[in-house]
Amino acid sequence: MIMLMRSPASSEVNRSLRITLSRGGNCSRRPNSPVRMDSGTVSSRIRVILLAQYRHDDIDTMIGPESCHIQLFNKRTRSYNELPLRYSEFGSCHRGEPSGSLQGLMRTRAFVQDDAHVFCAEDHLETEIGRFCHLLRAVYEDFGFSEFKVAFSTRPDLRTGSDETWNRAEAALANAASAPCLSFEMQAGEGAFYGPKLEFHLTDSRGRNWQCGTVQLDFFRPQRLDASFVNDQGHQETPVMIHHAILGNMERFIGIILEHYEGWLPVWLAPEQVVVSTVTSSDLAYALEVAAAFKGTGIRAVLDGRTERLGKKIVDARDKCIPLMAVVGARDALNRTISLRRRNDMQETRTLDDTVASLRNECATPGERRSQNDLLEAGN
User: Fold this and answer.
1) Which of 12, 104, 151, 308 could be disulfide-bonded to 199 (CB atoms 3.0-4.6 Å)?
2) Catalytic option among 60, 68, 187, 295
3) C-alpha–C-alpha distance, residues 119 and 78, integer Å
4) Which residue of the set 197, 221, 244, 260 is catalytic?
5) Terminal alpha carbon distance of the chain
6) pTM higher than 0.70, yes or no?
7) What is the pLDDT of residues 134-151, one digit of tens each?
8) Catalytic residue among 15, 30, 78, 117
C-alpha cells in the first residue's frame, strides 16, 4: 500500500487519491528498478518504439511499466460484477532525456506521476471517462485553473495492434469524451503506441500551455498479458484498460504552480501561511501564545522573534512570499489582539480568538472547506 504524501501543500493531491480509494479504487506501489531491453520480456516491435525514449548511456533499458497493475488484476479470476476495477499510485517514472533539454523541475529524467489504471468493459467507458473528467475539473479549479484545453490524439505511425482495433478505440474515446461536454481539437498521429488519448492543457499566467492531465484507452496490453474476466454470459472477455493522470509529472506541476503564482501561492497552499512577528523583544511571550493558537487549529505558522526592526521583518516575510503577517506589540498583549497584515498591505486589528477562527477557514484546503459546508448543510 502506498503512503499518502505528507507535505502540507499536497493535500489536494491526496484528496484526489482518497476519492479514488473511496470509490472502490486500489492503491499500489511498483518497483522502479530498470529491466534490460534484451531480457526477452519486450517484443521486437515495442522495443523499437521504446528504444529512443529509454536508451541511456548506450545501455538499452526500460522501466517496469504499468503492466504490474495487470498482474494484480490477473491474481485471480475476475467477474464482470467486480468491474470497473481501479488501481492508482504515485509511481516513479524515468525518461532518457538529452542533457541539453533538462530544465529545473520542468523537464527531468526521473519524476513521480499520479498514475491510475481502470479495468472495465467497453460499456463502462463513457461513465468512467466522465467520472475522471469531473474529478480533473474539480482539482484544476482548486489550484486556480478554471479553464483548460483538450486535445484528442489519434494513432501514430509506429504503433501496435490492428487498424480494426484502433478504429474501435478511437470511436469509443470520442463518444466517451462527448458525454462530459468536452470540446477538443484533433491531434493526428500524436496518440500513444498502444491507444488514443485525451490530453488536458493548462494555460499559466504567462500564457504558456502545459500538458498535464491525460486519459488513454488501451485495448492491447490487457490482451497481450492475458487479462480477462467472466462476463454475464459466462464467457471469458478481455477488459479495456484506461490509463489516466490528473497532474501528470508532479515535479513539473509544482514548477508550473510556482511560476503561475510567481511564488505567491494561495493561502491554503503556502508552506508557511502566517508569520507571527514581535515589535520588541518584550512581546515574545504573547507572540509564542499566538503562534501556538494558530498551530493548534492546523494553521502553518512560524515565529519571527528576532531583535530586528519591524520594517525589516515585513520585507523578509514578503521575500519568502508568506501571505499573512500577524504583528503583536505591547498594546496587543494587553488587549489580547492581533494586527493582521496581508500581502496587499491591508491591515486589520482583531481579537486573538476572532483572528484564529477566521484564519482557520481561510487557511483550510478547498476540500476541507467543502467538507465543512457539507456538514453545515447536513445540520440544517
Assistant:
1) 151
2) 68
3) 11
4) 197
5) 38
6) yes
7) 999 999 999 999 889 999
8) 117
Residue tagged active-site, from 69, 243, 244, 313:
243
Q: Is the peptide bond before 31 cis (omega within 30 degrees of 0)?
A: no
Specify the DSSP element, H or E, that contains 170: helix 163-178
Catalytic, 212? Answer no
User: At residue 285, what are phi and psi to the nearest 5 degrees?
Assistant: -60, -45
CA distances from 65 to 104, 217, 341 (A): 25, 16, 50
Q: Which has the higher per-residue pLDDT, 290 or 379? A: 290
Q: Is 244 a catalytic residue?
A: no
Active-site hit among 27, 69, 86, 113? 113
User: So where are the chain's domains?
Assistant: 8-30+66-260, 274-368
Q: Which of 69, 93, 115, 142 is catalytic?
A: 115
> Catalytic pick from 95, 300, 343, 350?
95
Whether 75 is a known active-site residue: answer no
3-state secondary structure at position 6? coil
Can 197 be counted among the known catalytic residues? yes
CATH superfamily, domain 274-368, is Anticodon-binding domain (3.40.50.800)
pLDDT digits (tens, 9 = 90+) for 198-232: 999 999 999 999 999 999 999 888 988 899 999 99
Active site residue 93: no
User: Could you name the CATH architecture of 8-30+66-260?
Assistant: 2-Layer Sandwich (3.30)
- 95 given a catalytic annotation: yes
Residue 201 is among the residues annotated as catalytic for this protein? no
